[in-house]
Specification:
heterodimer, A: about 280 residues, mainly beta, 12-stranded mixed beta sheet, 1 helix, 24 strands, about 50% strand, B: about 210 residues, mainly alpha, 10 helices, about 65% helix, about 0% strand, elongated
């Protein structure tokens, strides 16, 4: 056997050993809990993504992949309250020791999710949803009826097709994107991230989008029914939407820094406020 | 010709409305034309409904409330010579105190933090081995303690928390300047509260959720 052949065999053997040890470390497991139609499910992850989807029947299915033997998962059920928590063991190497979760549950479940890294996502649900993460992006789609509360430090927040839901989303430096989001109360704040709203501010709701230095942009259709107040202490405001003047307003518009006006029957109130970011209201 | 109520006159009549009283014709006309005031009534009624759930909490002594009020006046969040019946006095009546326990604690914490920073002077990131850009807000001693706590448990998140604490501090400083320039502006005071809330959120996330 030539030296090159021996070298090749060594490489193949080493790769096989590494693959086997990696497979051993990445253990996929599944646990099922019978429950009612509206269980409360908490998922507390140290590191790693959490994806939540509706599943068939009154069952909560927790699927998870352990990426290392330095992290373990505790699962518990007390009536309709189900808790899933991963925690790092001695000698863990922080974010390498992540757990990936996929949760299937009844669509009416109340869900609380936390992780320090990895995408946190949920879709097609109609219960209350609370999501919190430090550097984690959050993606919530097709949610109805309940309340949504999102908090991140630097993770971007995407909310899409959220109908008739109370929404409170706060981030310090993440961007917030809202597409087709409406509800009786929608409050979004970001310190220096951008806030982008694309929808009709429907539902006779109260909408407050605010930032410190981040820009705020809203795109609404010509049919929108809104009562808009926009102000930037030190930044510029720009309105491309044909608003009518308000007869009674507590805000005195300052050219270039604020504007007020109504459209349609002014069913929803919209407050766009930033300290030094730019505000732009556009017609879609 | 009848003159429509101003927002201030409407606010003076708020306690009766929130207690479940009927809208007078004048109030109804104002409420229909002013979304801000009608939203305020709805919010206050909701608080009235939910306040009993907080009634079981321990109430601080009257001295604490006086000190808190003094701090809020000093910060410019409320005005020192508000007439009886104004909105903030309404909130400071005994029946509202259970609601103010968590709110007051958060505001007081934020105020103490800011005041302490003013006393102790700026502490920049050089103490952490990092140099802060000139246009980024400084960190105070409490912030540094929090960052030490974060980095002892989750070293990879220290930079994230540090950046976001600086952002929150910059927001507070800008909002405080704005209140100082416009002491009668509700908008400026709202911004200051938002800024404090943001910093409180960073602290809560670090303390409540850091890995054990």
């Amino acid at each position: 056997m030539s030296s090159s052949q021996r070298a090749t065999q060594c490489i193949v053997l080493t790769a096989a050993v590494l693959a086997a040890s990696l497979a051993a470390a990445q253990t996929q497991q599944e646990k099922r809990f019978n429950c009612g139609p509206r269980p409360t499910v908490s998922v507390i992850n140290e590191y790693g993504p959490v994806a939540v989807h509706p599943g068939p029947g009154n069952v909560v299915v927790v699927r998870y992949i352990l990426h290392s033997d330095k992290v373990e998962v505790d699962l518990s059920q007390s009536g309709d309250r189900i808790t899933v928590e991963s925690h790092l063991l001695q000698g863990s190497n922080s974010d390498r020791d992540q757990v990936d979760y996929e949760i299937l549950l009844p669509a009416g479940s109340n869900v609380m999710v936390h992780s320090n890294s990895g995408l946190l996502s949920a879709e097609n649900l109609r219960g209350d949803i609370s999501v919190e993460g430090a550097a984690t992006p959050v993606d919530l789609r097709t949610i109805s009826e309940g309340h949504i509360h999102v908090k991140t430090l630097s993770g971007n927040i995407m909310l899409m097709d959220i109908r008739q839901v109370h929404v409170i989303a706060n981030t310090v430096s993440g961007d917030v994107t809202l597409k087709n989001v409406d509800g009786p109360l929608v409050e979004v704040s970001s310190n220096n991230g951008k806030i982008h709203y694309d929808g009709d501010f429907g539902g006779s709701g109260s909408y407050k989008l605010s930032s410190h230095t981040g820009d705020i942009e809203a795109m609404i259709p010509a049919t929108a029914s809104v009562d808009v107040t926009a102000s930037s202490d030190k930044g510029q405001v720009d309105n491309d939407f044909p608003l009518l003047p308000k007869q009674h307003s507590i805000t005195i518009p300052q050219k270039g820094h604020s504007f007020v006006g109504i459209a349609g029957r002014a069913a929803s109130s919209v407050l766009l406020r930033t300290f030094s970011g730019k505000i732009r209201l556009k017609q879609r | 010709m009848k003159v429509m109520l101003s927002c201030k006159q409407f606010e003076d009549l708020l306690p009766d409305l929130v207690d479940g009283g009927e809208w007078s014709a004048d109030q109804r006309v104002h409420g229909q034309s002013c979304s801000r005031c009608s939203t305020l009534v709805e919010d206050l009624r909701q608080i009235v409904q939910e306040a009993p759930q907080l009634a079981a909490m321990d109430e601080p002594s009257p001295r604490v409330w006086l000190e808190l009020r003094k701090s809020l006046v000093a910060e410019g969040i409320i005005r020192p010579h508000a007439k009886p019946g104004r909105l903030m006095d309404f909130f400071f009546t005994p029946r509202w105190r259970p609601v103010l326990v968590p709110l007051g604690a958060a505001a007081a914490l934020a105020i103490v933090l800011v005041a302490h920073r003013s006393d102790s002077g700026p502490v920049n990131g050089a103490q952490n081995g990092a140099v802060a850009p000139a246009n980024v807000a400084a960190l105070d001693d409490e912030d540094l303690q929090l960052l030490d706590e974060v980095s002892s448990k989750t070293p990879s998140l220290r930079a994230t928390y540090e950046d976001n604490l600086r952002n929150a501090n910059a927001y507070i400083q800008d909002a405080k300047d704005s209140v100082a320039r416009n002491p009668d502006s509700n908008d400026a005071r709202d911004q200051l509260m938002l800024a404090y809330n943001e910093k409180t959120m960073v602290y809560e996330m670090a303390i409540n959720r850091s890995p054990r």
